[in-house]
């Protein structure tokens, strides 16, 4: 029996075949006669000399990872992660790009807009009550229509006079992992209602 036989049997049963065990060469069997005059078949093994194995050169090291992937920009905003340039790097890029090539001009414009966005975020973190700067929204949220509808229904259900409806809404808030993008909106809603009812 060979690995190809096992793979064929697995394919008949709609099971994914085994990988890494197939052999390109046909299997060679040898036979020997046992003391009780019965013929025994065994696989022919290649003998390995331990001296050659010990003195053989080591295999080459595997290559390092040559590329990585990450998002450069999400909805036009570059996230502050390790792979992306820091604001200081962007300032250096914009100051050192005195070339008039189109790529250099585009890079300088992108760096300048990135600096403006990051400075707006820094200003907003210093002043949490300030939601806009020069009429521009600091954080751009993109919510699907389903999430917007879910938010509207939950806020209505929480304020409903029927305790069963509000209990179901609160239970949905506790157990639904897909509402993470709505979390800031629910927190804002709850704080507004707490201040309203106090």
From TrEMBL:
<dbReference type="GO" id="GO:0003713">
    <property type="term" value="F:transcription coactivator activity"/>
</dbReference>
<feature type="domain" description="TAF6 C-terminal HEAT repeat">
    <location>
        <begin position="139"/>
        <end position="195"/>
    </location>
</feature>
<dbReference type="InterPro" id="IPR011442">
    <property type="entry name" value="TAF6_C"/>
</dbReference>
<dbReference type="InterPro" id="IPR046344">
    <property type="entry name" value="TAF6_C_sf"/>
</dbReference>
<comment type="similarity">
    <text>Belongs to the TAF6 family.</text>
</comment>
<dbReference type="InterPro" id="IPR037796">
    <property type="entry name" value="TAF6"/>
</dbReference>
<dbReference type="GO" id="GO:0046695">
    <property type="term" value="C:SLIK (SAGA-like) complex"/>
</dbReference>
<keyword id="KW-0539">Nucleus</keyword>
<keyword id="KW-0805">Transcription regulation</keyword>
<dbReference type="GO" id="GO:0005669">
    <property type="term" value="C:transcription factor TFIID complex"/>
</dbReference>
<dbReference type="Pfam" id="PF07571">
    <property type="entry name" value="TAF6_C"/>
</dbReference>
<keyword id="KW-0804">Transcription</keyword>
<dbReference type="GO" id="GO:0000124">
    <property type="term" value="C:SAGA complex"/>
</dbReference>
<dbReference type="GO" id="GO:0051123">
    <property type="term" value="P:RNA polymerase II preinitiation complex assembly"/>
</dbReference>
<dbReference type="GO" id="GO:0016251">
    <property type="term" value="F:RNA polymerase II general transcription initiation factor activity"/>
</dbReference>
<protein>
    <recommendedName>
        <fullName>TAF6 C-terminal HEAT repeat domain-containing protein</fullName>
    </recommendedName>
</protein>
């Amino acid at each position: 029996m060979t690995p190809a036989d096992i793979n064929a049997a697995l394919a008949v049963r709609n099971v994914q075949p085994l990988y890494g065990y197939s052999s390109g060469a046909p299997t060679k069997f040898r036979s020997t006669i046992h003391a009780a005059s019965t013929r025994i078949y065994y696989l022919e093994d290649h003998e390995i000399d331990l001296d050659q194995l010990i003195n053989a050169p080591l295999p080459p090291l595997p290559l390092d990872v040559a590329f990585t992937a990450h998002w450069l920009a999400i909805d036009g905003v570059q996230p502050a992660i390790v792979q992306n340039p820091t604001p200081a790097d962007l300032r250096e890029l914009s100051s050192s790009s005195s070339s008039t090539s189109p790529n250099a001009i585009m890079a300088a414009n992108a760096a300048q807009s990135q600096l403006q966005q990051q400075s707006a975020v820094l200003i907003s973190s210093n002043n949490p009550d300030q939601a806009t700067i020069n009429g521009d929204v600091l954080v751009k949220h993109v919510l699907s229509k389903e999430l917007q509808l879910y938010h509207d229904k939950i806020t209505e259900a929480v304020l409903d006079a029927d305790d069963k409806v509000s209990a179901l809404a609160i239970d949905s808030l506790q157990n639904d992992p897909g509402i993470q993008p709505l979390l800031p909106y629910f927190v804002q809603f709850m704080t507004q209602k707490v201040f309203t009812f106090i």
